[in-house]
Design a protein that fits this description.
With 607 residues, this protein is mainly alpha-helical. Helices cover 45% and strands 9% of the residues. The strands form six sheets. It has a three-stranded parallel sheet. The longest helix has 18 residues, at 395-412. The structure holds zinc ion (ZN). Zinc ion binds at residues 247, 249-250, 252, 271, 273-274, 276.
Amino acid sequence: MESDRAADLKGKAPHTVAQSTSAEPQENADWVSRYADDVIAESERRAPGKPVVVASGLSPSGPIHLGNLREVMTPHLVADEIRRRGYTVRHLISWDDYDRYRKVPNGVPGTDASWAEHIGKPLTAVPAPAGSAYPNWAEHFKAAMVEALGEMGVEFDGISQTAQYTSGTYREQILHAMKHRGDIDAILDQYRTKKDPAAKAPGKKPQQQKQKPVDEAELEAAEGSGAADEDDGSGGAGGYYPYKPFCGECGKDLTTVTSYDDETTELSYTCTLDGFTETVLLSEFNRGKLVWKVDWPMRWAYEGVIFEPSGVDHSSPGSSFQVGGQIVDQVFGGKQPIGPMYAFVGISGMAKMSSSKGGVPTPGDALQIMEPQILRWLYARRRPNQSFKIAFDQEIQRLYDEWDKLSAKVADGSALPADSAAYSRAVGTAAGELPRTPRPLPYRTLASVADVTAGDAEQTLRILSELDPENPVTDLATVRPRLDRAEAWINKYVPAESRTIVRTEPDTAALAALDEASRASIRLLLDGLDDHWSLDGLTHLVYGVPKVQAGFPADATPKELPAEIKGAQRAFFALLYDLLVGRDTGPRLPTLLLAVGADRVRKLLGA
Ligand SMILES: [Zn+2]
């Protein structure tokens, strides 16, 4: 569970089926298969013949960021495996949009400090950012997530908790919880006295705290979760009540229940903000909710949830998952789901961007620079308890290389079983394959081309058609959407100082100052250009020039060459970079030469 859920998930989960079995590696089974085994078995025990229910919870309190995608992907992958085995599965995404608005996140376009006046109202009662197409705050941020999940092939049933509560769906459960408030209070009280003050970090989201991919203040602001610890309903002079009305006057949750009559369901409350007092019949009243620690287990029972993960943090007893396990069992007569704790997902390469963008990336941001398959793969190949980072920096090129290598292995049947499983979970779902790039050229090549051409389509097509003259790219559509992702990455996440700017005019001073050996090396290169004008050919050429100069054949292997040849190659490459782009490094030279074009290469190299 994200947000509130994660905020007070400070306790180690009790032993669950999943935790006791999944730690043992089984041959030929990846983590998804093992959870699927457990979940199917547990579902058969609890609800034979019924659809298997897995759940995620998201709080649209601001931009729903990339770190929280694990909340959805973990059950999604398990649900998808179960579907592939022929079972019917419901993946519920609970939109916790009846949660209180806690703070105004920084850097959200169309908002300003005046939104603070809505703090305490349900997220669906807060106005959307200015210019939004959506009716309220929650819907605005939900929409971006729904779109990203659609692109990733995630099939789910979204449940608005606002809709559920305000329509009275949970009436019976609320009345039941009120009736058993003494039992609930007693369960919560076991933890109140045991609380470790050091582990109690109000308003922090454990999953986002383990590492700091961006400035921490930034992160908290962006996620809008700077909440006080979840109010468990305790405190009022009138006793313990697990239910909180939103005030009939100001709409906020700063209310205290002052009395409740089990027979008549007459409930009185006072607003601590404006003093508004009201007596309502809880059997008819729909403007309030169960406190979080009771709300969550109530819904496990109501929906029959078999599997629901939550953000990792294992420091103290009293987490809502642990307490919920007791409440669902002793109060609602249900059972706790199998609930693995998932580890932190970090972001690399966002530190620079975050200050200017005013936030942390969302799944939609990731999908602008990588295809959905790659993003799915990141989650599929790591067990939930393994943390990893999602690359917005140069690392994304290596990630894509790795993915292409795996694709090749899968194609020729040499991939290991677990790697193959992760691959098949990445490229599609039980419903079918996700659309893929027909001709997946190396991402780093596409990025270099995008870098040099600044997105000029005609120039891009010219360069890509020359990469492999035997089998030329003749239509950019065949290299999309991967090309678009690489272009987006170059434009948004490669800092200006790392961008490649090809010289428009030759550096005549540098050319005039070249020594004889350098001149000779450039001459060798220029003489070979026409015969080597392809990615492979130019690769051969640029590595071969220093060999020939040193008196060896161009195709001499490293074993046949002295160690110094490496130094000569490095010096040659640096010379070319300097003359072409005015730096000592850049995109791989063969790609750069193709991108610059033969005529311009000749001009810049003084021919
Ligand atoms: Zn009020």
